[in-house]
Specification:
Number of domains of chain B: 1
Number of helices of chain A: 9
Largest sheet of chain A: none
Order of helices and strands of chain A: HHHHHHHHH
Largest sheet of chain B: 2 strands, antiparallel
Strand content of chain B: under 5%
Shape of chain A: globular
Strand order of the largest sheet of chain B: 1-2
Shape of chain B: globular
Oligomer: heterodimer
Distance between the termini of chain B: 32 Å
Radius of gyration of chain A: 18 Å
Number of strands of chain A: 0
Helix content of chain B: 55-70%
Order of helices and strands of chain B: HHHHHHHEEHH
Number of domains of chain A: 1
Structural class of chain A: mainly alpha
Radius of gyration of chain B: 19 Å
Structural class of chain B: mainly alpha
Chain lengths: 196, 211
């Protein structure tokens, strides 16, 4: 995997191995925060930022601290602490410098530290033995893929508000799953049906 | 807290009313990702059950010492410790399952079920009831994962194979043609969507009877 080209890693992260609809990482926010486009885009922005930053920091932490000290088995604990600290830091910065953004993002930021997508991206970087540049590329790609899926999902949900839906399906989580079903079919099959 | 709660009702609450998937809608990522077969579902749920019991017990023991402001980092570290134990034990004793569960084992750390129970129950209740609660919620999770895994494996491969033993085989018995997509990601969304619709339908019927 270490010799994969950056473009291949990027396309993998955004489409083929899309975090939300193909790998099921970060589903809680996918069904919970996609009722309208505004909050979905806010959440996505926060996720891109935190994923990229944490791939950067965790690569340095893993290569220069954990591996030389032979503490690789502590990686789960180390990464979750780094991510929690980063999220806290981002929250401080956003609250100080971008109050309007904080008002719309405020409640989502703490959610990110328990978002599978962030820890998943960091752990996949280690598992695939990506180099420094590859790790960051994968982090950005994961964030972009997350954004794409979140935006499609929230636009569909917002625009289908006036449609008739059976009461047992409702407007909540179950409805989101049926939209996700159609989306995952397109994401998973697009590159397989059309041979490149 | 009065001690007049019965152990059985505390345990059953985790399976019915507070069921992690259908009641609380928590921990969806592992639920959908690993349920390609019954076996994987059982492995994942067993790992989660162990982490739940361990973290609920420890958080409940420490609940008087934990300051309110830093409780979430402390809970995360407690949970991450137990997850590391599961990670290493599974890698050593069940390498096949460890390979197929992959990144989702360390991701138990961010499973909302575990931190949710620590936050909502273990911080406020005694050790004994916290452990019962963990067992209840863990069993609820196990049942859902087995159900989802069973449906997907049966439709997707035409049979159910459990720890090397072929239990059901529709392909040779009935000439069933497996629907491969059920073991891929669209199958997961379809299965949980249909199951949730059925649960909602039952709830609506119950509410109509009550009125």
């Amino acid at each position: 995997m270490a010799d994969a080209s950056l473009f291949a890693i990027f396309m993998d992260g955004v489409f083929l191995k899309n975090f939300l609809v193909v790998q099921f990482l970060g589903l809680c926010s996918f069904v919970g925060v996609t009722k309208d486009v505004k909050s979905a885009s806010g959440m996505s922005g926060a996720v891109i930022f935190v994923i990229t930053l944490s791939s950067f920091v965790s690569y340095l932490l893993y290569t220069f601290i954990l591996v030389p000290l032979r503490l690789e088995y502590l990686n789960t604990i180390a990464f979750i602490i780094v991510i929690a600290a980063l999220v806290q830091l981002v929250e401080f910065i956003v609250r100080k410098h971008m109050p309007p953004l904080y008002r719309s993002l405020g409640i989502y930021l703490p959610l990110i530290s328990t978002n599978c997508a962030v820890l998943g991206a960091v752990l996949l970087n280690v598992m695939n033995e990506y180099t420094f540049i590859q790790s960051i590329t994968f982090g950005i790609a994961a964030g972009v893929g997350y954004t794409v899926a979140m935006l499609i999902m929230s636009s569909i949900r917002e625009r289908s508000n006036v449609l008739y839906v059976p009461k047992a399906v409702g407007r909540g989580v179950t409805y989101a799953f049926f939209i996700a079903l159609i989306m995952s079919m397109s994401f998973a099959n697009y590159f397989k049906v059309i041979p490149l | 807290m009065g001690d007049n709660r019965s152990v059985a009702s505390e345990y059953m609450r985790g399976i019915t009313k507070d069921n992690p998937i259908f009641g609380l809608v928590l921990g969806l990522c592992p639920t959908l990702a690993v349920t390609t077969s019954v076996e994987n579902g059982i492995g994942m749920a067993a790992g989660t059950l162990f982490v739940l019991v361990g973290s609920n017990m420890l958080v409940s023991l420490l609940r008087k010492e934990i300051p309110d402001t830093v409780r979430i980092p402390i809970e995360l570290i407690v949970i991450a410790t137990f997850v590391s134990i599961v990670d290493m034990v599974m890698e050593a004793f069940t390498p096949g399952m460890y390979a197929s569960l992959g990144v989702y084992i360390p991701l138990i750390v961010v499973n909302c079920i575990v931190i949710g129970r620590a936050e909502a129950y273990a911080l406020k209740n005694g050790v004994f009831y916290s452990i019962i609660d963990a067992f209840g919620v863990g069993s609820g999770f196990l049942l859902v994962l087995m159900l989802l895994g069973g449906i997907r494996e049966l439709l997707g491969t035409g049979g159910i194979k459990l720890f090397g033993v072929q239990l059901i085989d529709f392909v040779s018995m009935l000439g069933y043609n497996p629907i491969g997509v059920m073991t891929l990601s669209p199958g997961a969304f379809l299965t949980i969507g249909v199951l949730m619709t059925m649960v909602n339908y039952r709830r609506i019927l119950k509410a109509m009877k009550g009125d």
